[in-house]
Structures are given as structure tokens and as C-alpha cells.
Design a protein that fits this description.
This protein is mainly alpha-helical. Among the domains are: 6-34 and 44-261, Serine Threonine Protein Phosphatase 5, Tetratricopeptide repeat; 266-338 and 351-387, no CATH class. It is built from 20 helices and ten strands. It has a two-stranded antiparallel sheet with strand order 1-7. Strands 2-3 form a two-stranded antiparallel ribbon. It is globular, with a radius of gyration of 23 Å. Mean pLDDT is 90; it is low at 1-31. Residues 383-512 form the RagB/SusD domain. Residues 1-22 form the signal peptide. Belongs to the SusD family. Residues 56-237 form the SusD-like N-terminal domain.
Amino acid sequence: MKKINIISIIFALLLASCSLDYEPLDTYSDLTEGMSDDSVQVVFKDKAAVLSHRQTLTNLFKNGQEHWYLDMLLLAESHSDNAYAGSPNAETTPFEVNSIEGSNTNLRRDWNGHMGNIAQANKMINNVDLVTDASLTAAEKAQFKAEAKILRAMIYFDMVRIWGNVPLVITSAGDITSETIKDVYPAYFPPQVDALTIYQQIEEDLLEGLQSAPVNDPTDKTKFTKSVARALLAKMYAEKPLRDYDKVIQYADELAADGFALETEYRSLFDVVLTDPNSPPSQENRAIEAKTRNSVESIYEAQFFPGNANWVTWMFGRPLDDWNFYFTWLKWITPSRDLIKAFTSEPGDKRYEQTVVFYQTDWSVYYPADHYAFMYKTRSAYNSIIKMRYADILLLKAEALIAKGDYSGAAQIINQTRRRAGLSDLPTSASASRESILAAYLKERRLELALEGHRWFDLVRLDKVEEVMNAVYAKDEGRPAQAYPFTSLSYILPIPQDVIDQNPNLVQNPGY
């Protein structure tokens, strides 16, 4: 069975057309390990190979900080009322002024990164059962497949919320040969499916993942556990395509039964500790460690240590472990005046000082140079990046209670995060009507989860984009002029144009 020259032609076209950072699907060169004696392709030759790939999957969030975290904050915070772009340029400004087009290079990076990660998850899902190494038990195979399905669901959950209709890829593309070209070739150019189908696949992956994934490990929140699946299920059932608020409540309660709770002190989630407290802030390379990893509130996180530090911190402000490192140019995700106004509307909110910090700079684009605002939640190269935490899911339970008419129950949940923040309970008037409790809820989610990648998706989920975003430009003096008004077509973003050019089966989203 001989490969034909079309392989080289296809991949040359792929690379030339879009310069992918990641291949969109599995390829022969990097995802197979040879042939068996009967010429059957072998993906994992033994247990060691499976374990190696499992570690690759564990590290995807940690190593993919650009598309998993940096760009997600740009979309969720700078494309909402929480932040300015921070560093105005062709990549970032469109998110700030609502002029995003399919040519945006960040969106291309994100699409290719996510599709590449799906291919890696599919490699485990589709091939681990084929491993003949007797030392790899059936229970281990089931666990590793479950973990990969939870990962795939997590990736698709982000993709469907960003782009809506996306390709559903659940198989691994094989080699193209003279005998298989008709069957295999289409797998390299998959069509889109509707968002409902994507959500149904996410649901299926998570429910299957729940069966064999490991239980929550309080000492290691980097694992794809049953608790991660439950948190994703709670988030997924709050979204419109499969909305089921009873299930949001169910999975939020199951997370509590798994041992999750709010940290006593909000600052523990983001703070760092100086190992030499006498070291002045201006001293470079002072030793700083994360105050808390694997907190009782963290559901899933990426962790960073000396020798494998978090590079993205210097994109947001001063890295406290290296005070002057790269602090000579504008930073991304600059907190907005509107967000600061929301924080200071009630005195004493402890979350404010953990979210926003002010430094003196050499520039004055959004604020005066002598008092310039920066995002503060990722403040050290050793901060954990928390992808999911219990406060998010707990507040989603409040949203579910509001939808079910239990305004008092929702207020009780909101008061839990308010008390931790040093605020008093909501007034009784806040739970007098759906409008008043929903307003209190949206404000609480905004402040509790500020600059963590939630705000835009909250506005979309609750149909608040036009109301909030078309009004913020007039009341926030630091925000550049709005390019286009937000409409119902703004709820999803454009598919990268060069990805469409590469794949004739993709169609651009309406409005772009």
C-alpha cells in the first residue's frame, strides 16, 4: 500500500494557505508510531506511549496560553465593558470597538489552536482501546478515554460559544493513499454542523466521561476529573441550546458534595508570597511563589513553577517576580473605567484590589501615566491560571433559581460571595422582582469573575449584549469610538477567512 504524491501536495497547500500553528487534524507524521507486521497503522505502540500522550493532553491548557487564556480574555473582557484592548493594534482594537472581521489573526490562531487540541484528544479517544500492551489495563484505558472526552468537551464548549456552527471532528484522519483517498480526503476538510449538534456532542462526551474519569483530587486540580465534567455540565446546561436549569442546580450541588466551596479569603485565589519579604518591589528577580494552588474553590487550573513559569503574566502588567521585565510597552486587557466604577459603587469591596492595580508608566493611552490601571489577577510567573472555579458554578445556580422564580434563594447565594468580598447582604428590594434580582446577579458575576474570561459570555447567554454594549461607549470616557453597533448577529464571531479559503465546506457566519 503506497502513499501517493497528493499527500505532499495537500499539506503544502495547507501550510502555504494559512501557516498553521497547529495542524487541524491528526496527521501521519506526528501522531503515529509505525506499522505492525500486517501493515496496520499503530498509533500507540505500548503503555509508555499512551502515558506520554496523556501528559501531552494534561499540558495543553498550560502550554496553550495564547488561545486558551490570553485571547479568551481579549474576547471576554475587552470585547465587553470590563476592559479596553490595552495595546491598540490590528489584533486587539477590533475587539474593543466592535469591528472584528475574518481577517483577524487572533481568531485564526485560536481556531487552529483549538482544532489542533481536538485532534490530540481524538488521538487518545480513538486509539487507546487498540493498544495490546497487557500492562495497560481495561480500567486505565477507560479512564484515559474519559479524560480525553472531558477535554474535548471543554474545547468544543469554548469553540461553539465563540463561533457557533463549527466542524464536529470526533475521528482521526488517516493516511491518504491511492486506495483510501475518497474516504480519507474529506476528513481533512470537515463541514460545519449546527450549534445544537455541537452541544449535544459536548453533553455526550461529559456524561460518558463521568463514568470513568477519576474523582476530584484536592491536591491536584490539573486533572480532568468527574468534578471538571460536572462543572462543564452545569455551564453547558445554562446555555440556550440545551438549557436546563434543573440540571444546573443538580451539578452545582454535586460539586459541593465533591468538596468544593468558596475560599475563605478571596485574595488567596490570586495572591503571591514573597519568599524574601524584605526585598523591595523594584528589585528584579525577587523570589515569589503562588500563595495557593489546588484551593478548595479551584476546579481546574494550570500550575507554573520555577523552570516552567507562566510567560503570559508580562502581557498584563508588571510581573511581581521580575519588576521591570518588559515593562516598556503597552499591556493587554486594561481594566475599564466602567468596571472600576462598578467596583467602587459600594465601598469596601475586597475584590477590587485583587483585580486592578495602578502603576506609573511611560505611556498615557487610557489613563494618566502617573496612575495607570492594570489587570492584577495574573501578577506573577508562578500564579496558577484557574480555568474553572466554584464561585462561577455557585453563581450559575443563582441564575437557575432566578429562572425558576426563587429570587430569595438566588439572593442567598449572591450574599455568600458578597460577604466574602466584605460587602453587606443585598437589600430586600433586590429580590422583589425578576428585574431587580437579575441586575444584582449580573453585577455580582461581573465583579466576582472580573478579568477571568466570563463577562462577554454572560452578556450573550442572558441576551444583554445590545443593552449593555451599545450604551457603554457613551458613558466610559476612556473607550475609543464604537465602530459598529452590536446586534443579534454580534453574538458569535467570524470564522477566520483563510480557514474558509482553505476549507471549501465552511461558510462565514452572518454579518461578517
